[in-house]
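COMPLEX REQUEST
Ligand: nicotinamide-adenine-dinucleotide
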Amino acid sequence: MTILVTGGAGFIGANFVLDWLKAGGEPIVNLDKLTYAGNLESLASLKGNNSHVFMRGDIGDANLVESLLKQHKPRAIINFAAESHVDRSIHAPEDFIQTNVVGTFRLLDAARHYFAALSDADKAAFRFLHVSTDEVYGSLELNDPAFTETKRYEPNSPYSASKAASDHLVRAYHHTYHLPVVTTNCSNNYGPYQFPEKLIPLIIHNALAGKPLPIYGDGQQIRDWLYVGDHCTAIKAVLERGKLGEVYNIGGNNERANLDTVKTLCAILDQEKPRTDGKKYAAQMTFVKDRPGHDRRYAIDPTKILKEVGWRPAETPESGFAKTVKWYLDNDAWVKNVTSGDYRNWVAKQYA
Ligand code: NAD
Ligand code: DAU
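STATUS: Structure written out below.
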């Protein structure tokens, strides 16, 4: 048996592939378009490992997906592939519609035809797991209850709207065609191999480079941070024990204002790699223009996944942030590689 992972050269997908194979899971076929966010160096440790078959391609390429399904006969598809950065969706929304909406539709449709031709035993075992985000639920006020799975969808950015559309398609394919799907809606991830356009790796990268640490608006926006390895164990648990057609929220019980997150990272860096001029990294913090339509607060109520699936995060915020800073300090070659040409163009455009 194999599983088909899409977007497995991106941040969460690569962590999932590495963790899955390390734990002795079935072979993986990894379909990834290798956009600016996909990086095969994240999977360098799998070189020569026959349990990892990489295929460069688009989830929206129906013929390619159909032939991969025919050839490898996976018992599950885990869909990580997406355009994932909110700021980029504000500059150029169309790529998000193409991959997140049209791409997910084509993948679902290929899965539907593949599923229909399986034996009854294989049908019973098959799963389509769609990896989604808490941003589909919109923005919370400070005293609002955290997102449950029944919260109304109120996406506010082109990114979250495109993910919301993909979630609805996944739901519809279950109700209409009985495709055995499960959807996960997760909060903000951090950890190894995250492209330094997202807050946490950007702050670590800029701090070490002696550059400003950009804080949007007043820095009081709240995110619920989860270590990526915990997201991967949650996906695995939902794949094994999640109920068909259900949605599971995944969160870290770690709500923090952005300003506090940045200060925490600076404090860890002060310990691990003090500035040579004796100053603190926090001196590099700079307030910049806010993100248009910036969501104020996200928070996950993880009751359902705990009760039904028995999953909870293993990492504490302290251990997760410390591990992450250490990883970036130890892996400057990876960072150097991903922060070449395209990255510099993005930073120039976004922080001009
Ligand atoms: P990422 O941007 O780091 O990686 C996305 C990967 O998908 C890249 O390898 C890219 O090359 C690939 N890709 C893009 N378009 C493709 C296409 N058309 N066909 C095939 N591959 C394509 O994203 P990430 O942070 O790893 O997020 C993975 C998934 O998890 C996304 O669906 C995202 O919406 C969701 N998610 C992310 C977070 C987070 O905090 N990063 C939180 C919750 C949910
Ligand atoms: O909540 C889950 C989502 O988390 C995922 O679905 C997205 O794919 C992922 O990118 C992430 O979205 P955010 O927009 O929350 O993440 P980002 O790291 O871009 O920003 C985190 C917070 O930090 C947000 O409030 C914006 C702020 N920020 C971000 C950057 C890049 C800054 O203040 N300065 C910055 O330079």
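REMARKS: The chain has a mean pLDDT of 97. The two ends are 49 Å apart (CA to CA).
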